[in-house]
Amino acid sequence: MVGVCAALLSNSRAMFLTSTKALQAQSSADYSSVGMVEIKGMNSYECVEGMPSGRFGDMKRDGYRAEHGMPMMCDEAPCQSGALCLKRDDGCLYYDAVRRAANPQSKLVLGNYAYWMSINKYGEGLGSFNLLVLDEAHNAVDELGKFMGTELTPHEVSSVLPSESRMLDAGADQEEWREWGGYWCIFASHTLEMIKAQIREWERSGGRGMSYAVLRRARDLRRLINKLATVAGMRGEWIIDRVEDARGRPAVKFDPVWPGTYAEDTLFRGIEKVLLISATASPKLGEMLDIPPQHVAFQEYPSTFPVSRRPVIYMATSGAMNIRSRARNLHSWITLLDQIIERRLDRKGIIHTVSYERMREVFRMSRWRQRMLTHDSYTTRKVIWEFKNSRENLILVSPAVTTGYDFPYTEAEYQIITKMPFPDSRDRVVKARNDRDRDYRNHLTMQNLTQMAGRINRADDDRGETIIIDSDFVWFINKNHRLAHRWFLEAIRTDQYLKPPLPKLKGG
Ligand code: SF4
Question: How far apart are CA 88 and CA 77, in angstroms?
């Protein structure tokens, strides 16, 4: 609402960015009545010509979506391989949405970070704006890093390029990778032009006989060209690492150590005013996005939620312990967890575990496991939906709801933080950023911690307790309170023994 008011009062043409589909849908529902126009990625719109009655409706597709009976979406449509489509000028769901968003009369345009950066880098953009509003701005550095980086598998290279293109080993240095990427990027571009000529020839001859495999190869080549261009264009310091892709295949990942150096060109795009909004934004965010300090005006506003309704309680009892002592005294740690739950069986709660391993440990050892819901990375959304919509007083045990999900009112009235959310120090990107900026790791931890604290308090009449049982919290907060927000610090209290919970909210 602050962003929308800023845009309307200053008569600006404004672009709003959100980081998740859920937040985008929420803003669209809230502000379409004041003229907000929404634009999403191509994979959110069905290809009209791919529908059964369309020109490409009888094309025999393959791939995951086809195998699962899913419709052809615009990102896999033949036009993305160079085929001509008259609907592109009128009648295509995606391109019509782009035209609406790019129309100078559309004063409030809503999209997401990834789409905005992509349409500006690979597409024709959405016209000029005087105001850019970044919602959940604490995610901006990550979004930028994800967009600038890339991942390559030997499989995707060898499936569209000749065998001589064999990928280098992850251990090769940045310069070797740049050369390799540059060479094969040019090669792939030539190959793509040849395939596009073939596709145009096919169209001239009436559109018969072209197989979907050729169209798919052109599309895969185009995607690979973008990745190779990223590799060839690496500048500054990058981390090149061996990883596994989503299907468990070996892959090489490329990440800029400091994504902020790309912020102006890729994210801010020279827009006159940028408004970054977040409950956990801090001056550090401006630094990480490489914004010169003289160009930043930072405002922190007090929380309107009463402290008494959102306490952050550190349990200084014998069961509270850090990861080192916990391994020796696992049983007393679980006993403390169970005692906290026992007093709150009349309501729903969340246990933040930070890792899947600890999630399984809690589930295995707690005596309240019959009430607990756990998940893996594929079932997160489904299990959260089940938890939110259940009328039973369940406990969601998860490492994945630290941000991005809200649990207002009776959806969760308490949450237990079992471990401080330190970023994984084995991660080479985290390590490199921390070597460059000694505050980086602490800043990230504080951000995650405050994000967690906000999950269950969503309005001034909401109510929920955050209970921390990791003794590392004590030194961390003492050493880093300057990185914390006032709304968080003012809610912290230490309890030496278990106290009765806050009164239960009505309903649920
Ligand atoms: S322009 Fe592309 S996505 Fe749109 S209807 Fe035509 S083929 Fe499908």
Answer: 11
Rounded Cα–Cα distance for residues 165 and 364 (Å):
48
Pocket test for ligand 1, best of 92, 93, 199 (most atoms within 8 A of CB): 92
Smallest Cα–Cα separation from 262: which of 222, 223, 230?
A: 230
Q: What angle do CA 132, 134, 136 make, to 5 degrees?
A: 170
First to last CA, the chain: 28
Instruction: Classify residue 255 as left (phi > 0), alpha (psi -120 to 50) or beta.
Output: beta
Go through the chain and tell me how many residues it has.
508
Q: Are strands 250-256 and 150-152 parallel, antiparallel or unpaired?
A: antiparallel
Residues 427 and 470: beta-carbon distance below 8 Å: no
From the alpha carbon of 42, which atom of ligand 1 is closest? 3
Local structure of residue 501 (DSSP, 8 states): P
The pLDDT tens digits of the residues spanning 273-299 come to 999 999 888 888 999 999 999 999 999
d(CA 99, CA 126): 8
Give pLDDT tens digits for 102-148: 999 999 999 999 999 999 999 889 999 999 999 999 999 999 999 99
* 393 CB-contact burial (10 Å; exposed 0-12 / middle 13-18 / buried 19+): middle
Q: Is residue 399 within a helix (H) or strand (E), and if so which, with residue range? A: none
Q: Could you count the other beta carbons within 10 Å of the beta carbon of residue 41?
A: 17
